Fold this sequence. Notes:
- The chain has one domain (3-503): Amino acid/polyamine transporter I, CATH 1.20.1740.
- The chain is built from 23 helices and no strands.
- It is globular, with a radius of gyration of 23 Å.
- Helix 6 crosses helix 15 and helix 6 (100-132) runs antiparallel to helix 20.
- The protein has helices at residues 3-6, 27-36, 41-44, 46-83, 89-97, 100-132, 138-155, 157-187, 209-224, 229-233, 240-269, 275-278, 288-295, 301-333, 351-366, 374-407, 424-438, 442-446, 452-459, 461-476, 495-499, 513-524, 526-534.
- It is an all-alpha fold.
Amino acid sequence: MPDDKAESIQSGGRGRGGRELKRGLKTRHLTMISLGGTIGTGLFLASGGSVAEAGPGGALLAYGLIGILVYFMIQSLGEMATYLPVTGSFSTYGARFVDPAFGFALGWNYWYSWATTLAVELSAAELVMGYWFPNVNGIVWSAVVLVIVLALNMISVKGYGEAEYWFSLTKVLTVVVFIVIGILVAAGAVGGHTYGVENWKGGQAFLGGFGGTFSVLLAAGFSFQGTEIVGVTAGESSNPRKAVPKAIRQVFWRILLFYVCALFLIGLIISPDDPALLNGDSNIGSSPFTLVFKAAKLSGADHVMNAVILITVLSAGNSSMYAASRTLYTLAREGKAPRIFGTTNRHGVPVWSILVTAVIGALAFLSSLLGTGKVYNWLLSLAGISGFIAWLGISMSHYRFRKAFIYQGHDLSELPYRAMLYPFGPIFATVAAALVILGQGYSSFTATPIAVDQVISAYIGIPLFLILWFGYKIICKTKVVPLAQVDLDTGRPTQQEKDMDVGDDEGMGVSSSKMVRMVRMIRRSPPGKVLEWIF
């Protein structure tokens, strides 16, 4: 099958201009996007602050608990996205399986979450490049990053996917190298000092008690946000029934492993009372990764980590633009946003959705330069809590999806991918996400006196989401969809599409049978098996 025809298989419907989004993402793209999506500044910079605030034990516990939440959430998403692979899926799932008003609120919530996150990455570009070029106005670097991200997304979905593949690969390799070097440093093989468990003694393992661990619990949630992007990409995957389950099965435990191993090594090597840890989120030279590399007596560690963090910023900005634009595109296609945002160009790119996302992200960034920056801080809080709301929405949608699936007489064998531990999984994820959302203002309430401004900032996303939900519900007079009327068919792949081979052999996109055999032979070898396990 020619590439252009293979890549334009219908992804949930036709664009207003008569063109479709194109299924240009291969299995390797989705796997690496999922794997690298949560490896970012939360791990490279903010993880040091987590260890300093809660101690090495408290940080590990917090990240582990959030990891369980994310595991069940991504399981729920995987079941729905393989059965119904539509672009910008969250609003569609919420509208079909719960309530059209819920889907409306969920879609707009997810869009402004990522549009605002783009502004965060533009601000981060100033910090990163300022480390090398302190005399250059930081807004120049923010503009450069915006142009790069905009260009990658405007080319085609392949532009986003290929860039994200290499960005994510760089981040994963950095974490792997860090873990190897960290083990050597802790064992005394390099650096000249053997590290024991001194940092876990004398009450240092759980600093701050429950309050310290709970505060890190919220920070850990922000670090893991982005895992769900694999659900957004399903509608543009060349083979979602194969790619999405593979991405979910092979990715989550590796992400959790990376975080747990990295945090454990940081807790072993760096004392939680080291003042450098608390400065890690604003000083590249104080990143816990940089500190461990310096303990190994590796020169230039700060510059290497600054380069990796720059790639991380580009990756996060690239993903922010993609996730927001596809969500807005879907909202427009469903009549929940202006029609112009549901159009695509001849390359299958939703140009207007990308442009308006870029404009909103740039305006949000500029708000940080005006006045005291209070508006910008509110936008940051809004983006953070919106991610948790999206997780809650995914879990609720899955609970209703499975109930409707069984109620309408379907058999579980029809599901391309089946989530584990239903109904416990989605119920646990829903309750856990709700608790995290309600706990956003914990530190503000415990302050003396109560920090009213911080309380408002922490919870500003909740009333906005409720206004969108119930406002749409009142105006459009929607109701919770009865199980018997839940639409389980529209957008579902036809049997012809299920049987169609679109040339995505293990995501490598090769068409030569000789090349395919060679790749398979390499993967059967011991080195190939190791690389396959890692990547």
